[in-house]
Amino acid sequence: MKNLNYGVIGNCRSAALISERGSIEWLCLPQFDSSSVFASLLDTEKGGSFQIVPTKLKQVKQSYIDRTNILETRFECEDGVFVVKDFMPRYRNSDNGGYYIPPDIVRYFSLVEGQPEFVIKYDPRLEYAKHETQNFVEDGCYEGVKETCYIKSQTLKGTYDSLYLYSSFDYQAILESEPIKLTKDEYCLLSYNQKLLPQDTRRSKLKLERTKVYWLNWAERTTSYKLYNDEIMRSALTLKMLSFDKSGAILAAITTSLPETIGEERNWDYRFCWIRDASMVVKIMTSLGHYRLANRYLKFIINILPDKDEKMQIMYGINGEKNLKEQELEHFAGYEGSVPVRIGNAAYKQKQNDIYGILLDVIYQQLEIYDISLEHSEELWTIVRNIIKVVENNWKKPDRGIWEIRNENKHFTFSKVLCWAAVDRAVKIATLLRRGMYIEQWTRLRDKIHKDIYKKAWSEKKQAFTQAYGTDDLDASVLLMESYGFINATDQKYVSTVIAIQGDLEKNGLMFRYRNQDDFGMPKSAFTICSFWLTNALFKIGRKKEAIDKFHKLMSYSNHLGLFSEDLDFETKRMLGNFPQAYSHLALIETAINVSESQLSDEEMLKDYIHEKKGLS
């Protein structure tokens, strides 16, 4: 059994997963949703990887350079010590004021002591390893003019693709996996594109320092809190890497088909922009002071909804693609044998009414911050009015819900609450913009939805708001009723709902999304964000000591770098599902902020955390 002990590096164009032993095991180029270059994550035999294997290894340690997305893997060997600094370049381009974000990975080998020996196992498998990839050295000479040498990799069948590896190491030693002795700093640069300028160790070091400065400056602009700043920062840096610079889209995760339960078929491609997930990320990142990310996301929304009758999908490709046809890669064995391995996601066809409220919540937040001076405010106002038309015509209808049930429509409570939230935020936006003719009309609609939910979603038997109208099944998403302003935390019906949901859905300190059977049977793993939601809800209803204890325990289930996936195993606490998961990290930040900003009269409830931090400093 293995855990998802990976670090992630990225530059808002693509990202890679690097194992705790320094092996690149997932990378898609030239962008997040491209076909894979390395995919041993999904098939150890066929997928391909980029390994560094010391001859006399004693131990490996891995960490990020503080407040950056530069990953350091320290190899301590009998014959010496060296550190590999992995990153994808991202820094200000002085020529045009934009950012240099090439589809590149730099692996900078920093010698610490001795002369450590290792082999490089360089094994790219382009185009999801559907066909053989050929690797060879190009001699770098054309019509007598010497150019930079490199290893070129290319497909021999199927879709043509190619890749370039530049290095200060001997290329034949890399291709033949021959021993290499490190006597000074060296580099490897992996690029989707052929380089036009000569590459050397000095240039790679310069890229490293420039990228480090970029991330340090970005981190410095992040709001600080009384507590949990390290955890908030790592999650914020991860969420930033999940943003796609070109379009403003935000990904749910960088991987596909990591299973929710080992050996089962709940394996999905998450390399897309869900309106729900992305909007939640934008809201939390705005609270951390990152307004540019929010502004670019709103431009993405404007671009995918160009016409007034454009129907909003629940999700889009990162370039705004609307058709996300789902396919299976049958030649891949899957993560620990979990098949199918899917690319694309058929959920894009689903109807989920909650997306409107979550999006309008973000639009309201941005208009409130910027007043009416926000760029594109008129276009956003048009979107607001069009969304309310959709909500008015659809809020009474069943949908597939937040969990994307594939074979059944229901009157999901969360969807209804977020329809209410959509109209509530529209009323607030109309008030901000002084559009008086809409306020009265929308207020009546808001009150109508509110009464409907109170009447039909409440179960006297469960003493709780339930998953859907006419059922006694409970659902963790209902915990968000208070977060979106539908009900007060002090309302006895909310308090009772929180207690009922905890009693029904909690197991071994972790949370099910729901327990009732869906189209794939009974869920078997804990959905990480739901455990954070419960923690938040308990904190808000006054059970603060319990909530804080749960929060600290939950944070201990991250991997060695503080990263979370989508799911956790109830028994072993190993991480499952796609990774790193935006949902999990935004919920961690939200919970940390709520606890940190609360007016605690003493430090008793936080003494373990504070003591631990003092011990580490």
Automatic annotation (TrEMBL):
It comes from Sunxiuqinia elliptica. It comes from the Bacteria. PANTHER family: GLUCAN 1,4-ALPHA-GLUCOSIDASE, TREHALASE. One of its GO terms (biological process) is carbohydrate metabolic process. One of its GO terms (molecular function) is hydrolase activity, hydrolyzing O-glycosyl compounds. This is Glucoamylase (Glucan-1,4-alpha-glucosidase), GH15 family. Gene3D superfamilies: 1.50.10.10. Residues 228-592 form the GH15-like domain. SUPFAM superfamilies: Six-hairpin glycosidases. InterPro entries: 6-hairpin_glycosidase_sf (IPR008928), 6hp_glycosidase-like_sf (IPR012341), GH15-like (IPR011613), Trehalase-like_N (IPR045582). Residues 8-134 form the Trehalase-like N-terminal domain.
